[in-house]
Specification:
Tetracycline Repressor, domain 2, 9 helices, single chain, mainly alpha, about 70% helix
């Protein structure tokens, strides 16, 4: 069974009505988290109430509270789903042990409508994490995993790179910075601009960095 998030994008879709009993416990939780991403991306974190999520899923509020004890737990799962989706999408497109660092960084960036929606959700949940240590720990775990993967790509592209950790930190910061800028100023930060910026930084930091 496919456990990845659907491309919730921007339109409300009560598509799960009558189908919740046909899937596993974890898959039901993923479906609810999927809808939550769409609501947060379109309208913000405060709109993602249990009542609103239930209406869009097509179930009662008691179904939502059966799978998630509170909004805190739901946000944890929502962030986890976003990370799983990003990993699954890149794994689907990239061969094992590939050297496509640009492709990996672009897959995490706000380069299309789906990722724009995800980045709106990321930013909303990041704000909540400043007051919630458990959500912050979840975010830190995904950040650590992303940095580790970037470091692997850097080593493949340039085994002589003399500061792999610093390079990975700068590249991830670039992904985050340009993606957030695109949320506020999409005309200045197109997908092409983001990819060009990533490509230039890879040339500067990775290919030109040797001991």
């Amino acid at each position: 069974m496919d456990h990845s998030v659907s491309l919730v994008g921007l339109q409300p879709r009560p598509v799960y009505k009558g189908a919740m009993s046909a899937v596993s416990h974890d898959e039901r939780r993923r479906k609810i988290a999927d809808v939550t991403v769409g609501i947060i991306a379109r309208e913000g974190l405060e709109s993602a109430t249990v009542r609103r999520i239930a209406a869009e899923v097509g179930c009662s509020t008691t179904v939502i509270t059966h799978y998630f004890s509170d909004k805190h737990e739901l946000l944890l799962w929502t962030y986890r789903i976003l990370g799983e989706f990003g990993n699954a999408e890149f794994e689907r497109k990239a061969p094992p042990n590939c050297r496509d660092l640009l492709g990996y960084l672009a897959s995490m960036s706000a380069v299309d409508d789906a990722n724009m929606a995800f980045w709106r959700t990321y930013v909303a949940i990041w704000d909540r994490s400043l007051r919630d240590p458990e959500i912050l720990a979840e975010i830190s775990s995904w950040r650590k995993a992303a940095l580790g993967r970037i470091e692997d790509y850097v080593r493949r592209l340039n085994p002589e790179c003399n500061d792999v950790e610093r390079v990975a930190l700068r590249l991830l910061a670039l992904v985050q910075g340009m993606s957030i800028q695109r949320l506020f100023d999409p005309d200045s930060w197109s997908a092409e601009t983001i990819k060009a910026g990533l490509s230039s930084e890879i040339d500067l930091l990775v290919r030109g960095n040797s001991g």
